[in-house]
Every structure is written in C-alpha cells, then in structure tokens.
Write a structure and sequence with these properties.
This protein has helices at about 1-20, 215-234, and strands at about 25, 35-40, 45-50, 60-65, 70-85, 90-100, 110-120, 120-130, 135-145, 150-155, 170-180, 180-195. By secondary structure, it is of the alpha+beta class. The protein folds into two domains: about 1-20 and about 210-234; about 20-195, Jelly Rolls. Strands 1, 3, 4, 6, 9 and 12 form a six-stranded antiparallel β-sheet that branches. A hairpin with an 8-residue loop joins strand 3 and strand 4. Helix 1 packs antiparallel against helix 2 (about 215-234). The relative contact order is 0.24.
Length: about 230
C-alpha cells in the first residue's frame, strides 16, 4: 500500500505542475515581426532584421541616434502571431535574449523594455540594460506585470494596458538609448516565460473547484493501479 500511496502522490504532483505550466514565447528569426521606433526630443532609432550574423541565423539590429540628455530613442519589435487573453496582473515573467554589441558601443549598451500591444496601442515596461559585450551573451531580465508600471508608447488606447484578462495581448522587445550618439546592438533568440497567474483560495462557502480533465485521467489511473495492487495482495 505504501508503494501505491507514493505513486498517487507523484501523479498528483504531476497533475499540479501540468495545471500551472508556463506560457512560453520563443523566437530566433524574428520573421514577420512588426518593427518600429519611438523617440523623444529628436532622437531616432531603427529596428531591422538581418538575415545573417545571429546566434545563429538571423538577428535583430537596433541602432539608436541620440545627442544630449534631452534625446531618447528606442527601436521596437512585436511578435504578431502569438497573443494571450489570460489575466496577467501580478504574474511574474522572465525575458531572455542573446545580445552582441556593435562597433563603438560603450557604457551600459542599451536599455531594454518589455512591450505589450493591445488593439494597435503599444505599452512599454523598463526591465534592465544589456551591457557591452564582444560576443553573443545571454541576458536574463525579470519582473512582474503591473499595469501602472507600463507607459503608452504609441496608439490611441488608454494610458495603461488592460492586464486583467479578456484583452488580446501581444508581446515584444524594445531597446534604446539616451545621449549615446550612434550605437548599435544585435539581438537574437528572444524568449518570454510567463509564470502561471496567482490564484487566491476560494472564500468560505464557495464551490470546490473541479479537477481538470488531465487530473481526472491521472486519478483514474491511480485508482486502477491501487485496485490491481490490492487484488494481488489478497
């Protein structure tokens, strides 16, 4: 019986991990991405997909031209073929990408923003900097989805994104500079991990949540195994 009990515990752990699986956006060639730029004070930026020179294959070239502290510019890239309507507020995330500094890069490289796009409006959340690297290096940056932390970059939408669920949301990356003259960084292998949204315990008297289909299948397997084991013992 102890074997069957251990087997039950293991399968229930698998069922729980399946229910809380992460959503992963993973792209290494930027094919079809929507590219653009944003700037303040006269700064300019370009985002261009180059077919070679990546790690390996294609790469995203973000070049900014800024002069003085009053000028800021970001190149933007949004993946159009994946969207999520799930609640995101309070959900943690990790952004990973490979980065290579272009000739003459200095200082902290480029600042990086996570982008979300809703209904044609683009919102940005600062998440860190790349640094200056002479060979492709994997950078991992994290944070938590909070509507108040985003700013409207372009579009006629509301000042803050709707991250409460029910709105199709696409994701992307922005990189930029302030007072850096002409500076280029190359990006490849973009990955975005979205952790499962936290869920609060049900209030007293509420209905007990039902098991998922996979959970029922696993439970049936466990019960069948335990019954067979019990018959052999008898």
């Amino acid at each position: 019986m102890r074997v069957a009990t251990a087997f039950l515990a293991t399968l229930l752990m698998v069922a729980a991990s399946t229910a809380s699986a992460v959503v992963v956006v993973n792209d290494g060639d930027f094919s079809g991405w929507i590219l653009g730029s944003s700037g303040v004070g006269g700064g300019t930026a370009t985002a261009v997909v180059e077919p070679a020179g990546g790690n390996p294959g294609a790469r995203l070239n973000v070049t900014t031209v800024t002069s003085g502290l009053s000028q800021t510019a970001f190149g933007t890239a949004v993946k159009p073929d994946f969207s999520s309507s799930a609640p995101l507020t309070g959900t943690s995330f990790i952004v990973r990408f490979d980065v290579l500094s272009g000739a003459g890069a200095f200082g902290q490289g480029q600042a990086v923003q996570l982008l979300v796009e809703q209904g044609g409006s683009l919102y940005a959340l600062p998440i860190g900097v790349t640094g200056v690297v002479g060979a492709f290096t994997t950078v991992s940056l994290g944070g938590t989805f909070n509507p108040a932390s985003f700013s409207l970059v372009s579009g006629a939408g509301p000042a803050l994104p709707n991250l409460g669920g029910g709105t199709a949301t696409r994701f992307g990356l922005a990189a930029g500079n302030t007072n850096s003259a002409t500076l280029t960084q190359y990006y490849d292998n973009f990955v975005l991990d979205l952790a499962a949204a936290p869920t609060a315990p049900p209030p007293p008297g509420s209905a007990i949540p039902t098991m998922s289909t996979w959970g029922l299948v696993l439970l049936a397997m466990v019960l069948g195994t335990m019954a067979a084991f019990h018959r052999r013992r008898r």
